[in-house]
Amino acid sequence: MNIWLVIGIIVLILGFIIGNILLLQQTSKNKLPKVTKDNNASYDRFEDKDD
């Protein structure tokens, strides 16, 4: 197997792993909005309804 092919595959794998780690760090800084009836149409989908 060609050495450059092996080096290329290793670089691609390391780039994928590092990219995912950086993406996780960036998204961990964002806060999720609190779910309320105003911003979620299916908020009360699982509540018991009196029929």
From TrEMBL:
Source organism of this protein record: Paraglaciecola aquimarina
Chain ranges passing through the membrane: 6-24
Entry keywords, A to Z: Membrane, Transmembrane, Transmembrane helix
Designated name of the protein: DUF2897 family protein
Pfam families: DUF2897 (PF11446)
Domain of life: Bacteria
